[in-house]
UniProtKB/TrEMBL annotation:
The gene is pepN. The keyword Iron does not apply. This is Aminopeptidase N. It is an enzyme of class 3 (hydrolase). Its cofactor is Zn(2+). Residues 36-188 form the Aminopeptidase N-like N-terminal domain. Keywords: Aminopeptidase, Hydrolase, Metal-binding, Metalloprotease, Protease, Zinc. Residues 450-554 form the Peptidase M1 alanyl aminopeptidase Ig-like fold domain. Belongs to the peptidase M1 family. It catalyses: Release of an N-terminal amino acid, Xaa-|-Yaa- from a peptide, amide or arylamide. Xaa is preferably Ala, but may be most amino acids including Pro (slow action). When a terminal hydrophobic residue is followed by a prolyl residue, the two may be released as an intact Xaa-Pro dipeptide. InterPro entries: Aminopeptidase_N-like_N, Aminopeptidase_N-like_N_sf, PepN_Ig-like_sf, Peptidase_M1, Peptidase_M1_dom, Peptidase_M1_pepN, Peptidase_M1_pepN_C, Peptidase_M1_pepN_C_sf.
Amino acid sequence: MVQTIRREDYRAPAHLIDEVRLEFDLDAESTAVVNTMHVRPNPAANGQDASLFLDGEDLTLVSVALDGKPLDESRYTLSQEGLLIRDIREPATVTIVNRFSPAANTALSGIYVSGQTLISQCEAQGFRRITFYMDRPDVLAKFTTVIRASKETFPVLLSNGNAGEAKDLEDGRHEVTFVDPFPKPSYLFALVAGQLVCREEKFRLKDGRLANLSVWVEPQDLDKTEHTLESLKKAIRWDEERWGLELDLDDFKIVATKDFNFGAMENKGLNIFNSKCALANPNVATDEDYFHIESVVGHEYFHNWTGDRITLRDWFQLTLKEGLTVFRDQEFSADMLGEPSARAVQRIKDVISLRAAQFPEDASPMAHPIRPDSYQEINNFYTMTVYEKGAEVIRMLQTLLGRDTFRKGFDEYIAKNDGSAVTCEAFLEAMTSVSKRDLRQFKRWFSQAGTPRVKVRSNWNEEEKKLTLSVSQTTPSTPGQPVKQPFLMPFPVALLNGDGIEMPVKLEGESGAGVAGTRMLELTENSQEFVFVDLAEKPILSLNRGFAAPIILDAGLTREERLFLAARDGDPFNRWDAMNGLLIEAVRDETRARLLHEPHDIDPRLLETVGAILKDESLSPAFKAVALAMPTEKIVSETLPVIDPHAVHAAWVAVRNAIAKRNLSAFMEAAEKNVTPGEYDPSAEPAGKRALKNLALGYAIAAGNARATILVKDQFTTATNLTDKLAALRLMVNSQTPAKEDMEVDALKAWAGEPLLLNKWLQIQSTASSFAGESLVLERVRELVRCDFFSIRNPNNVYSLLMPFFTANPAEFHLPDGSGYAFWAEMVLELNRINPQVASRVARALENWRRYVSPLASRMHDALESVYARREELSPNVLEIIEKSLN
Ligand code: ARG
Ligand code: ZN
């Protein structure tokens, strides 16, 4: 039975747990827990319910005692959901003994086995798979954790807080006690045991204290931990300097594991990472990996304040810690880049991923506000909306209030709420109190789903030299929300003259001279007008600069004007956006023309603009690489009313080839000018050169240039960094070079022993294109699933092979006969039995089936129905996705 949980049904807990002592006897097959809780009725609950409910899942109960005495069976009831103990009206000590099996835990939630190591993951509701507990974020307790285990099998034992006494026991076992001084909810509990080694360093904090930082891994990974530790030190320093927040612990540990359901977890003082988000060296990590690791290490570290010290009242508030912490990690990454053009490139990449993944979610049957109103399975709501759109909402607040006021509000939020479990209101109240602004309209961003459409039309009055902007906003209806109210959003605007220079702007009714630069407007109504006066000439509009508001903008500009912006806009984000919009439009027009069998030529001015950007000395290679990259087929499809993946693919190839042919010599020049010899350096500047070089090589190969093919083959064998090596392999795999098979086999042989590399290899396979006469990618993927180097139990294998095939290779997945969908259904059902969280992510690949052309849509629907037909065996995670997709 699947239950819908509603935000409005929140009730304060009937009891509180002040302290808990957990004693573990670890064993991979069967672990025993003695759990002693100091429980008391919650005064805030007014004694309405005297029953103590403890969540428990897949546990074996051994005994229950109350104040040291075994409890009569009539006092408690054990169910699938947990343990109910009646009549706890006074403070009491509840002692529970239970067992569970880490080895049988394939869901990777609770405590499970990774190789020889035991790893925990508790957020959101994994703690109940360890012991019976009030597994909810608003119950904060002080934890003491005693771990006993075989010293040979588990020489290293870790948990939250400070390690107290350690001692050897009889029969080869040993014991360590950890005391965590900070009260915390159970989702922040962590335990790790295994044959681990660490890189550690003493680091001086701002207040002079020395903190011991350490990164724990299996021995073969020790040579991949330097960047992790360096990133952690940068994050600690940055949080001190930018937000005045210090590390509150003497010991801060990071653990990396190859078996992990998502990126990483902010357990108090003991962060646990998926190895792909933590481990790097030049042989196993690309430029992007280095960058990503720095940002995830930052993200988890920043949670120590925004998440751990101030936590959530209930799971509906998830964006309070996640949106805010993503915003913080984005700011961290930007500050580490420093230089404005590099920062702009980062902003561009963040927006690309928002558009590629969050916008479609906001337009899907799973659409939900950043603070949802209901869910069936909370693990389905760790979404792009809660995280990335949540971060955009926080960013808008900073834009609206200004950095200084925002910082004051942030300080007030921390000061007022430290040590408690709160709601999103706490953040908005702090911002309201320091800014004295009424933020009630802004709050709609927390409750309304859907991406707002903003439409701008302008009217130039030549006699009066004034420009009227008519701006309207609408937000499409989403499940459960047919009608939307207008949002308050920042809308920075610049008016450019014929040289691309920002003109002085002055709104009607304002006195004095206009000020040149970006003008901040605020949108609040369904439709509004802004009248700019005293303009020397008819301006060209640069709107929503820096992507201040996360909207879909219809600026009403002519192609001429957009070409102008692509060549001249001084706001790097908008310059990129203009170029990107032109490329999307070119593929879209080409798609339409092909479907209608009409002749179509790509606008020569677009082809020329590509060349002009390539040759522009004032632009960084990194910027050129993002500006000239083809928008993905997925991004193009998002802008079409009906998606025909094959038509889009053919159009995409045609546009890319036309760009490549027209600019071949410029691409070859860029490829040769941007090599990065010498020792590998993952920083932004050389990384940008590599990105441009590899992009240029891709175009040159698309243009059929033989020299480019030779260069790329050469690069594959001589590359001294993984970025170049992988780029070369990918280009070859996606070409028709006969040599590609040998390269694939060579790479597989060299990489099979290193999970990080094997996963990259798998991803290249699953996102490849098949050419006439070659086997379909579907067949390759089917074969690979059965190979012994692939394990469907390993989330990273699934995320590298299956997910990209289902979501990032539309032309190969959406086969007209529906065989791709049948394979998807098989995989969802198989994963459902093993790991519901991973299964439900994979299940989401078909949620937007309604948007596809007719035969595909109905075949996708059939596949969804075929999974739904087995609903009796579906986990709540998968069932929620399938039901919502079909509704
Ligand atoms: N809190 C973790 C983070 O840093 C992610 C936890 C994801 N948990 C889940 N059940 N999906 O973002
Ligand atoms: Zn997070």
